[in-house]
Specification:
With 516 residues, the chain is α/β, with parallel strands linked by helices. 44% of the residues lie in helices and 16% in strands. The chain is flat, with a radius of gyration of 30 Å.
């Protein structure tokens, strides 16, 4: 007996269409009449066909790729996709795995030239309906913008919606805070200072979070406060995400938002922001960013630097909650902490007495493939999680809720992690040969022969051997991991100096060694 998957979709933007339940009944009846065994019914609720982020649809395609079924059955072709391009791509994908698309209401399949033409006509009609509906919806949204009617979405701090009229109105209390923020900024208070002042009074953002420099900056840049609203900065593209487009003067609606900040004051703040914008001074590298955690509160340490003093800039690591006055952990001298970690790595791994022990134990672990399958599955999940994070931050950036600089920084960090994970996955899935002691010695000798004081070499050492550093006021708890062998070694490194800014090293580096 032939087999099939069924698929149904119910859109919130259509008033008259069959429910998911009705579509399923029709598909089951169709399969029964045609002696087809329905293996599973997939359904997505509240999503349009123009959005390819349909979880159940994607799950169905993934299963169909495995060649488990002969057909995919839909109630109507517009449930499958609303434009011919997407439909053709997906039908080609199904056909490559021997799967045909069937419709309950349209008596077509992929077999004959006539059916191909008929299917194209029907899909073209569905695509026309979808685009026409979208155009009418946009017309309504533009009219709402002109009238100041709420279109949905997240309102800026200082505004509320009248539940009866759906008009956007000023929230008097929040608006007073907005005005205070502008006044503080024009009185030469920085973003961090303003955020701290609000947090000290227990004030929260619209989402119930603490104020940060980032939220203050976004508020000061928001043109809605002077009554200007840009509608249609982005459009939905084929994969369902948003894509920024060039601003169009036709989208600019003057004074459609109730005015909280007078245009002259807003422009004064804008000019001040432009004048205060960093001119791209020298950037300082921090070896241990992402590795250092605070023992007191568990937050990450971040790199920071002082203003130049006598032609010297002092680098520090500070708890990320320190400036928000949520943690009183001491500031740590960056040069001292980095030197401590680098020296500890060298002393631990780059001495002849311990290397042979690590090599022998490591080879046993490396050549034992019993736990490879579990690790491979774990790596795949981590890579998928990174993919999802990239999608999420892209959506946030395109919705203009994240600056370009912050987006690129997060994107690069996630991609770096993905590269490492994919390298390990490739090794575990493709390496068949067993490493010998000679191979490992050769690799380590390469490291030892190429020791230098460059940032790049130190960064390589940190990424290879360091797992994390937990900082207390008087101690550094350093956990090393030899990634080649996946063997962890924990050590407690005490800084016997009572001065947290001391440059005294906890360890003396061993000289480079040659393994014979």
């Amino acid at each position: 007996m032939k087999t099939a998957f069924g698929y149904g979709r119910f859109s919130t933007d259509r008033q008259r269409e069959e429910s998911i339940e009705a579509q399923e009944i029709a598909i089951r009846d169709f399969c029964k009449r045609n002696k087809i065994k329905l293996l599973e019914f997939y359904a997505d609720r509240g999503l349009s066909g123009t959005n390819d982020n349909r979880e159940q649809f994607q799950n169905m395609l993934d299963e169909a790729d495995k060649g488990k079924v002969d057909f995919v059955v839909v109630h109507k072709l517009d449930r499958f996709a609303r434009n011919r391009y997407d439909s053709a791509v997906v039908r080609k994908r199904l056909a490559d795995h021997g799967v045909k698309l069937l419709s309950v209401l349209e008596n077509v399949n992929d077999d004959s030239p006539e059916d191909v033409i008929l299917m194209s006509v029907l899909e073209g009609m569905a695509e026309y309906y979808s685009k026409n509906l979208s155009r009418e919806v946009k017309k309504g949204m533009y009219r709402n913008v002109e009238k100041g009617i709420y279109n949905g979405g997240f309102l800026p701090y200082g505004y509320k919606v009248n539940n009866e009229t759906r008009m956007i109105e000023i929230d008097d209390y929040e608006a007073s805070i907005v005005k205070e923020i502008y006044n503080l900024y024009l009185d030469n208070n920085g973003y961090v200072t303003i955020a701290n002042k609000l947090n000290e009074r227990g004030l929260k953002t619209k989402r119930g979070n603490d104020w940060t420099a980032d939220t203050i900056g976004k508020l000061l840049k928001n043109e809605k406060y002077k009554g200007t609203y840009f509608h249609g900065k982005s459009k939905v593209i084929r994969n369902g995400r948003k894509q920024k487009v060039i601003k169009n003067t036709e989208w600019k609606q003057e004074e459609t938002y109730p005015i909280i900040i007078e245009a002259e004051i807003w422009e004064t703040a804008r000019r001040k922001r432009t004048m205060n914008k960093p001119k791209g001074g020298k950037k300082h590298n921090y070896l241990l960013v992402g590795y250092v955690k605070c023992k007191k509160c568990g937050a990450n340490y971040i790199g920071s630097s002082s203003a130049p003093y006598e032609n010297h800039v002092y680098r520090f690591y500070t708890c990320s909650k320190h400036n928000r006055k949520k943690c009183d952990a001491k500031i740590i001298n960056a040069d001292m902490l980095e030197a401590t970690v680098i020296d500890f790595i060298k002393e631990t791994f780059f001495n002849k007495e311990s290397l042979n022990e690590y090599i022998n134990e490591g080879l046993e672990l490396l050549n034992d493939k019993s736990d490879n399958e579990e690790r491979i599955n774990s790596l795949k999940k981590e890579i998928q999680a990174c993919d999802k994070k990239l999608d999420n931050i892209l959506d946030v950036y395109l919705d203009e809720e994240m600056s370009k600089e912050k987006y690129l920084a997060r994107k690069n960090k996630i991609e770096d992690k993905m590269q490492y994970l994919q390298s390990e996955l490739e090794y575990l899935t493709t390496t068949a040969e067993v490493l010998t002691k000679k191979d490992v010695k050769k690799a380590i000798n390469y490291l030892l022969k190429n020791v230098d004081d460059s940032y790049e070499y130190k960064k390589m050492m940190v990424d290879t051997f360091l797992d994390h550093v937990i900082v207390d006021d008087e101690t550094f708890e350093i956990t090393l991991i030899y990634n080649l062998f996946r063997k962890s070694c924990n050590f407690l490194c005490n800084d016997d100096s009572t001065n947290p800014y001391s440059s005294k090293k906890a360890f003396t580096a061993s000289p480079p060694l040659q393994i014979n």
